[in-house]
Amino acid sequence: MTTSSGAKTVVRPLNNKAQQAKRQSSVKSRRFSLRSVLLWILLLLSAGLFLALAALPVGRFASAAISAGVVAAAFVLGRFAQRFWHARTLTVLLLAFVTFRYFFWRLTGTMPPVDDLVNFIPGVTLFAAEALSFVLFLTSLFVIIDPVAREPSEPTGDPALWPSVDVYIPSYNEEPELLETTLAAAVCIDYPRDKLHVYLLDDGGTDQKLAHANPELAAAAKERRETLQALCERLQVTYMTRPRNEHAKAGNINHAFHKTSGDLLLILDADHVPTVGILKATVGFFQQDAGLFLVQTPHFFVNPDPVEYNLGTFERMPSENEMFYYSIQPGLDRWNGSFFCGSAAILRRAALEEVGGFSGDTVTEDCETALELHSRGWRSVYLPRPLIAGLQPETFDSFIAQRSRWTQGMIQLFLLKNPLFKRGLTISQRLCYTSTMLYWFFWFWRPIFLLSPLCYALFGLEIYRINLPDFACFVLPHVFAAAFLSQFLHGRMRWPLFSELYEYLQSFHVSRAALATMIRPRDPVFKVTAKGQSVDEDGFSPLATPFIVTTLLLAAGLAACAWRYSIFPEHRAAIVPVAVWCSLSFLLALGGLAVVYERKRVRRQERFTVDRPAALKFEDGTSIDLTVADVSAGGVGLLVDPKWRDLLSQPDRTPVLTIAATETEAATTTGVRIFRIEMRGGELAVGAGFAPRDRQDIVEMARFVFGNSVGWDIFLDRKRVAAPTFFGGLLFFATRVVPRLGHVLLALPGALRRILTFQAP
Q1: What are phi and psi of 510, to 5 degrees?
Q2: Which CATH architecture has domain 157-391?
Q3: By three-state DSSP, how is residue 674 classified?
Q4: Mind telling me the catalytic residues?
Q5: Any idea what the Cα angle at residue 29 is, between residues 28 and 30, rounded to 5°?
Q6: Rounded to an integer, what is the distance from CA 610 to the centroid of its chain?
Q7: pTM to 2 decimals?
Q8: What's the CA gap between 452 and 468, in Å, rounded?
Q9: In which pathway does it act (predicted)?
Q10: Distance separating alpha carbons of residues 117 and 142, to the nearest angstrom
């Protein structure tokens, strides 16, 4: 079942029902245009009154009293937010009111004079960073003010009339073992067999690569193509490649798009393994709405990223992506602004045909495609249900490479296809896309916020004119309100200080890619994120230098604050706020240092904890009852009665493992190979790798490991305990960082020698 690059091109007419749905939507929009205009006028008048109240010039202590009263009222209202939508909105507005008051005070009362350029230039730079983050704050509030909570939508009617689905799995340089898992799971998807077609889109075995001038590279590409063709034959899926590697992932998918004919497309990254129910949970949305072009689902990851791994937070707190997938995307969905994230998504062919396929002008082809289709009146849906399991970058340098590409793509979109000026978008969609793109300018404001206290501490510059009473009356209420608002909106998805930590860790390195993109927005090219890498021993990442230097500078700043406090008692009212600011920056820098000092991490497949009865049967007919304790894509952990140790220790045995059926899952059978035996808590712990005997074994194990996402939901909910307060977040942050500092400090002299002598790590 192999299709080469010469397959026949299929061109299909636009879906008439979809076009009719779009026309009806347009008529409905015109019908309610007057009402919309009146609502916007009312909204603008209310906003003007809100801003006028926030800007009222009152005394320092009166302002503090107003802020305290507003925060207290918001705290009370927030208790009713789950029961009354208006309580949630009012809580958000009250807390935003405190931030508005801070911003107006900041603009009118803290700026250095224009004629003092030494202070004015860095002061204006800091204010510009605050202003940009403030705009992001406002657009973000709009996005998440009323998130949508959707439930799965199963297809209805005669299965013979259900839409056909093409499953695209684009690949470039991934290992065959990783692809085998994804392909086997895709084959297991619960959908009518004649309606489901799985394609491996191999960009690592193109004709161009087979004809490479370097004979070794050409031979490797040929071997890859032959290996993957054999894999596809074994799993009964279609292998597809193309003549040339043009337009990266978008070009690869478009090549397949023009040679296939499914009504819907399911896009999966090579390391995104789907559950059996991914289509049963999503296809119904397309039946209900002929004008729908996208159903996006979350990216659930089974392994920790470098921050989670090095700080040991993966199983103790929500991951970084959860705020986006479970707070922001549902908010975008309210405004028909949820966008394609490159994988774990189902798209309508008719919509894509209208724009000629997937867009490829930027390196974020996913968001770009969604922007084009939204501007043409198509609609999107976001389903907050994990239906795939993927892998995150394991090393800090691969993490930065991934984020640099995302930053480049969003800046490209902002410059080349700015949503504020894109024809066809609603006002709400413009704000949604603008908010998403503005976030990727964090590389500008985060280092400025972090390092600004050094201007006064080290050089005596007054770029932010403030004293202790002003700090207490304006800054502290703003900090409390912002922390409370963040906890109120994202409390179960993001803990205090970890957004700042992730932004800080990315800023120094992605800034180079961002600036290069701003100068030449059409130059960036798509780069595949490396997965499955390892860290052979503890040590600083090759990218650690700016974090070491920053930490030392902030330590020097704290020492300078202490010196100034003792030498200049008349300036203590100004020194204390700077010292507090510098202390928070230093804590963040220590967190960054603990992350870039990477712990040993050998490559392995992540394991899920299970508790299932099973049996192990040998060639001679002997059968052993046991328990499956954990499972990964590559094998299982078994708990066995110690009396069977001698039998299990015999070499070259390949018994058959049968995992008992449950009410919702059939029994699973596969060959295994035993590679580890050890005593653990009075039981014999046996490590076994899968040794599938045929295609059926491969398919059954993929179904068992990745078929049901219930365990993933339980895992996510276990981490989503109520977030600590701001001070509790500080404590948690410190407890994860401090235990790592001993190893970091021991390795620091060697790292400094390399930095000073310009040696590579």
Answers
A1: -75, -20
A2: Alpha-Beta Complex (3.90)
A3: strand
A4: 203, 366
A5: 90
A6: 26
A7: 0.87
A8: 18
A9: Glycan metabolism; bacterial cellulose biosynthesis
A10: 37
Helix (H) or strand (E) holding 388: strand 388-390
The fold of 606-710 is: Thrombin, subunit H (2.40.10)
Question: How many helices and strands, by DSSP H and E, does the chain display?
Answer: 28, 18
Cα distances from 257 to residues 7, 78, 162, 556, in angstroms, run: 11, 48, 20, 58
- What residues does CATH 3.90.550.10 cover in the chain? 157-391
pLDDT score for 4: 43
Whether 186 and 237 have beta carbons less than 8 Å apart is answered as yes
Please enumerate in sequence order all residues whose Cβ is within 8 A of that of 108, keeping only pairs 6 or more positions apart, or say none: 57
pLDDT of 715 reads: 79
Sorted by sequence, the CB contacts under 8 Å of residue 694 that are 6+ apart come out as none
Torsion of CA 89, 95, 100, 106, to 10 degrees: -160
**What is the C-alpha to C-alpha distance for residues 108 and 91, in angstroms, rounded to an integer?**
27
Res 145 pLDDT > 70: yes
pLDDT band at residue 620 using 50, 70 and 90 as cut-offs: confident
Q: What is the largest CA-CA distance in the chain?
A: 93
Q: What angle do CA 132, 133, 134 make, to 5 degrees?
A: 90
C-alpha span between 29 and 35 (Å, rounded): 10
Which residue did the predictor score with more confidence, 248 or 373? 373
Residues contacting 231, CB < 8 A, separation 6+: 176, 179, 180, 183, 200
Residue extent(s) of CATH 2.40.10.220 domains in the chain: 606-710
Which residues lie below 8 Å from residue 650, measured CB to CB, with a gap of 6+? none
Nearest to 737 by CA among 727, 729, 748: 729
Q: Looking at the predicted structure, is the pLDDT value of residue 528 above 80?
A: no
What is the DSSP code string of 482-528? HHHHHHHHHTTT--TTHHHHHHHHHHHHHHHHHHHHHHSTT-----P
Q: How far apart are CA 507 and CA 403, in angstroms?
A: 10
pLDDT class of 39 with cuts at 50, 70, 90: low
